[in-house]
Amino acid sequence: MEDKNPPTKPRVVCCIGDIHGYITKLQNLWSNLESCIDPSDFSTALIIFLGDYCDRGPDTHKVLNFLISLPLKYPKQTHVYLCGNHDFAFGAFLGVLPNPIDGSEFKETWKEYEMNEEREGWYKGDNFENMHLQGRRWAGNHTVKFNTIKGIEYKGSIYDAAPTFESYGVPHGSADLMKAVPDEHKKFLADLVWIHEEDDVCIKTDEGIKSCKLIAVHAGLEKNKDVEEQIKTLKAKDTRISKVEALSGRKNVWEIPQELTRTPTIVVSGHHGKFHIEGLRLVIDEGGGLEGNPVAAVVLPSMEVVRDTDHLVK
């Protein structure tokens, strides 16, 4: 007898790692995703970009154009654009972050890190007086020229923001960027979400296909803080915070918080400059913004890994 209610096919979810201004990598990755996913599944997929669209690579302007164009080109897809720490800082410089919810001024965010101002060469040009800390750091001129951790020279600031300025035709650290960035790019940066939650996302595990909750956040959630409180703060886009750990943290946001292990929850992030899958913790940032590294994506539920460097034929 025919089953009148066959099981619903799980929706395809594509989680795309940090792009960092590399338009060709993004275009190649997108083409590869189209090639390896069934067309009907791809046309209705949930696409989650994990943040850090700017800096390091040469084509931030073109990357933002590409991302902004997707909803028109793929109207049945759902596109989620997470805010990365680089995007937060770019937005802070342009003045598109929401105002602090307690009515305080952005210069209050400087105090905690004032001891770093000289070394990091914080921005002191037009409109700096009430700019969020990360905007000043982003457009600054780092006095230390070599990044010993990455083994490469800083590109202007601690954020490697010089290529972003140049992609809009202005020199690094110039206030002219505020006028050069198109309004639609400013709106895109202003609208980025700090966290995204999704119910009923299917993932292939050793025990078969499992339906889970999914939380996407650029760096991760802090292990020893109440999860609900963190989510509430991130949804509110609380810009009183000098450094948002969920967007910028490292070791403290690497693991899934214990309370999320009680019900199956996928936590997916970029940010960390590595590709790491352990159980339901997915870290997808193989590129790290370095020219020679690929941009990667993970497709759910299959857990297929797709890179811009794969040679897939449409």
UniProtKB/TrEMBL annotation:
Stored SUPFAM superfamilies: Metallo-dependent phosphatases
Alphabetical list of Pfam families matching this protein: Metallophos (PF00149)
Domain Calcineurin-like phosphoesterase: start-end pairs: 13-138
Domain of life of the organism encoding this protein: Eukaryota
MF terms (GO), sorted A to Z: hydrolase activity
Active site: 86 (proton donor)
InterPro entries, A to Z: Calcineurin-like_PHP, Metallo-depent_PP-like, RLPH, Ser/Thr-sp_prot-phosphatase
Protein known as: Calcineurin-like phosphoesterase domain-containing protein
Taxonomic lineage: Eukaryota, Viridiplantae, Streptophyta, Embryophyta, Tracheophyta
